[in-house]
Specification:
The complex is a heterodimer of chains A (about 325) and B (about 350).
Chain A lengths: L15 H6 L3 H4 L4 H11 L1 H18 L1 H8 L41 H37 L1 H16 L2 H11 L3 E2 L2 E2 H33 L2 H8 L4 H37 L11 H10 L5 H28 L6
Antiparallel strand pairs in A: 1-2
Helix pairs in contact in A: 3-13, 4-6, 4-13, 5-6, 6-7, 6-9, 6-11, 6-13, 7-9, 8-9, 9-11, 11-12, 11-13, 12-13
Chain B lengths: L1 H32 L4 H6 L8 H11 L5 H14 L1 E4 L4 E4 L14 H36 L4 H15 L2 H12 L21 H34 L3 H8 L4 H29 L3 H6 L5 H11 L2 H29 L7
Antiparallel strand pairs in B: 1-2
Helix pairs in contact in B: 1-13, 5-6, 5-8, 5-10, 6-8, 7-8, 8-10, 9-10, 10-13, 12-13
Classes of the chains: A mainly alpha (about 325), B mainly alpha (about 350).
Amino acid sequence: MTAPLDVPESAKEAVPEAVVTGVDRKAIQGRSLGQIAWLRLKRDKVAMVGAGVILFLILIAVFAPLIVKWFGHPPLEFHRDMIDQETQVPKDRFGGISWDYLFGVDPQWGRDIFSRVVYGARISLLIAFLATLLSVGIGTILGVTAGFFGGWVDTVISRLMDVFLAFPLLVFAIALAGVVPDTAFGLSGDALRVSLLIFIIGFFNWPYIGRIVRGQTLSLREREFVDAARSLGARGPYIIFREVLPNLVAPILIYSTLLIPSNILFEAALSFLGVGVRPPTPTWGGMLSDAARIYTVPHYAIFPGLAIFLTVLAFNLFGDGLRDALDPRGNR
Amino acid sequence: MVTYIIRRLIGAVVMLGIVSMVTFAIFFLVPQLAGATPEGMASRYVGRTATGEIAKLAAERLGFNDPLVVQYGRYVKGIVVGAEYDYGAGVEYCPPPCLGYSFITQQPVFPDLMNRLPVTLSLALGAAVLWVGLGVGIGVLSALRRGSVFDRTAMIIALAGVSLPIFFTALIALQIFSYGNPFSFAAQGGTYTTIQDSLPLWAYALLLPWVTLAFQFAAGYARLTRAGMLETMNEDYIRTARAKGLKERRVVVKHGLRGALTPIITIFGLDFGLLIGGAVLTESAFSLNGLGKYAIQAITDQDLPKVMGVTLLAALFVVVANLIVDLLYAVVDPRVRLS
C-alpha cells in the first residue's frame, strides 16, 4: 500500500500516468518527443504493416541475386522453348506460370517475369531513395537559407522555386532524359541512366520541400528560444544547426516518406515512356511499356503493375502514419 | 485589380522567357557538354546515309554554327514578328507566333500544335468535370460521416487510387472493358472523333480515358477535400451558422465547403494547367494523338523546334492557370485582397 503522498520526490512533477504506474523509476522518466511519436507509430497497425512491406521490399532489392538464384532464372536469360514461335506468346496457360516460373515468362523472349520484377525493385528503390535524398538536400539547404536570412536572398530563392513549379515537369524530365547520349560524363550504360534519373527526379522535386522548409524556418526564426540563443551570443551557423534544424526534422521526415512513392511513380513513368533505364535491364515501368505493346498477354502487365502499386501503397500508408504520429494536431 | 493583373501578366511573360531559355539550353548545351558537335547534331536531321559534307551544310542551314544567344534571339524574334525560313525549296514566310519549322518534317510547328490541342483539351476537360465532381463530393460525404463504413471504404479506394500508376490502370481498363476480357463495350485505344463530327462518338472514344484519368485525380481530391472539411467543420463560424438556425445543407455547402475550397482550387489550377499542356502518360497509354504524344514523339526524334513549341505551350497553360487560380481566390475567399 502506497498512499499518493509517499510518491518519491522525483515523481512529484511527473504526469499522472507515471504516478499510477508506480514507484518504478524508469517509468517515471520523461519521454522525449521522438519516443512519444515512436509509441504512437507503434500503435498504428496500418502504418506498421506499411513499414513491414517496405522492409520486405528493401530486403528483396538487396538480396535480389540470391532470391533469383533460389526461386527463379537469371532476368536476362531467354527461354524461347517456353514461347509459341507462331504467336510469340507463352505456350502454357496463364502465361507459363508454374513452380519453375513463379510469375510466368514474358512474350517473345520467354524471360522469367519473377526475376525481372525482383531486379526491378532494385532500380526502382535505388532511384527513388537517392532522388528523394537529393531533393531533400537541395530543398532543405535552400529553404533554410531563404527562410533564415530573408531579404534579397529569400526573394531570389523564392522566385527560383516559382519558376521551377511552373515548369511542365514531366515534359522537361523526358526531354532531359532523352537528350543525353549513351556515353556521357565518364559513365555509360545502366550506371549513366540511373545517375541521370536520380539527378533529374531529385532536381525537379526540390521546390516542394524547399517551400515547406522555408515556411517553417520563417516561423521558427521568430521563436523565443532562437531569441534566447541569439542574446546569449550564438551566431548564425550555431542557430541554424542547433536551434532551427532539429525542429525541422519532423516535417522533413514526413515529407521525405511521402516523396519516395511519388518518385517511384515518376521513375516508372519515365521507364514506361522509354526514357528511363534502357532495356534489357529490367524495370517495372519498362515491363509495363512492353506489356502495353502486347495486349494478348494481360498477365505480363499485372505483376510489374502490382509491384509498383504495393510499393507505393506501402510508402503512402507509412507516410500517413508517420505524419499522424509526429504531428498530433492533424487529427484526420 | 487591373494593376495586379498587369503585373502578373508581365511576370508570366518573364516566366515563359525563362522556360524557353532553359529548354533551349537543355537541347543545345547538354549534348555539347556530353560531347556532340554541330555537324553531329545536324547529321541526325539528314538521314543515316548523309556524308560529312551534307551534315555540314545542314548544320549551316539549321543555324547550329551560330552562337547560342544568336540562335535563341532568332527564335524569339520568330514568335514576335514571324520569320522567313529557307528549306531549299524556296523561302517561306511563317507568320507570328512562329514557333519554327520542324527539323525533320519541315512543317511549321504552330499549326501542328493547334491541331493536337483539341484532343488534349477534350481529354482534360471531360476528366476534370468527373474528378472534381466525384472527388469533392466523396470527400465532403466522407468528412461528414467520419469513421462510417462509407468513409473508410472511400478512403481505402482513394489511397489505392493515388498509389496506382495511370499507365497501369489504363492497361487494365483497356484489357477489361475494351479488348473483351470479359467486356468489349468501350472504344479501343487510338480511336478519336472530333466533337464537330459527332458528339456521341467523341464521348464514346474518350469515355475510358476520362474515367481512368479521373479515377487517379479524384482519389487525391477526395483525400484533400476530406482533410479540409474536417478542419473547417470544427471552426467557430460553423457553430455560429448552425446556432443562427441555418439549414445543415447550407451550413455544409456555403460555410464548410467554401472554406475548404482554397487549397483544392490551388491544386486544381496546377493539375489542369499541367494536363492541357500534355497528358503525356494517359495519351501514350490510350494512343491518343494529343499534345503529350506530340511531345514524346518530338523528344524521341530530338526535333528541337517541336519540343520548344510544345514545352512553351505547356508552360503557358501552367502560368495562365496559376493566374486564374489567384484571381479565383478573391471570389471564393472574401478575405483575400488582390494588390
